[in-house]
Amino acid sequence: MTADGVDRSMGAPRFDVVLRGYDRRQVDEHVARLQRVLARMRADLDVARSQPMQAVQPTTGGLTVPGAPTPPGSTRAPRPAPRPRPGPPRPAGQSPDVIDNFTDRMQSILQAAEEEADEIRNQARSAARADEQGLRAELAELIQQRAAVLADLTRLRGQLESMLSGPTARMMAPARDTAPGGPDGPAQPVPPQQDAPLPGGPARPSPRPSPGRARETGPA
C-alpha cells in the first residue's frame, strides 16, 4: 500500500476511450476512491486478525477449559491451548465477539465495494458497446445514401447527354444537305453583290447617262 492509501497490488483499472460514454476522468477517480477505501479496510482487517485471542479463565462445574490445569486425580489429558497469532497485543477490553463482528462487517463492506466497482465497469462496457453499434448503423446508412446519390447523378448525366446529342444532330443534318457541293462537299463562299445596298444604309443613286449617248439616241 502506498502513501496515498491505494493498494497497488490490485492494479489500477483501465477503461477504453470511446467517442460516447462515461467520462474517463470521473470513472478513474471513482475507482481510485474505492481502491483507497478497500486498502484501508484491508489494513484494518489485517490488524484485527493479527491480534491474539484473550485467554479465558477456567470456570467451575467440572468442565475442562482449554489452557486450564488438569485437576488432581483426573486421567483426562488436557487439550492444547490455541496458539496466539503473531502481531501486536490486542488492546484490553475487547472480546472475541467484537473482533468477529468487526471482521464480518469489514468483509461485507469490501464485498459491496467490489460489487459496485464491477457494476461500474459493466455499465461502462455496455455504454461503449451501445455507442459503437449506433455509430456502425449511422455509417451504414450514410453509405446507402451515398450510393443512392451516385445512382441519381449517373441517371441525370445520361439524360442530359441524350438531350444534348439528339436535337443537335437533327439540326446539323439539313444544313449539310443544302450546302453547295452536296452533303459531302465543302461549302463554297457566295460572292457579295457590289451594287446591292448595305442592310440598313441609304439606297445608292442610279448612274446618269452620258451626253454623247443622249444625242445619239435623240430624234433625227
UniProtKB/TrEMBL annotation:
Enumerate composition-biased segments (Polar residues). Answer: 51-62
Q: Where is the composition biased (Low complexity)?
A: 173-185
- Organism from which the protein derives: Pseudonocardia bannensis
List all Pro residues biased stretches.
79-91, 186-210
Protein origin, superkingdom: Bacteria
Name of the protein in its database record: Antigen 84
* Ranges for region Disordered: 46-132, 163-220
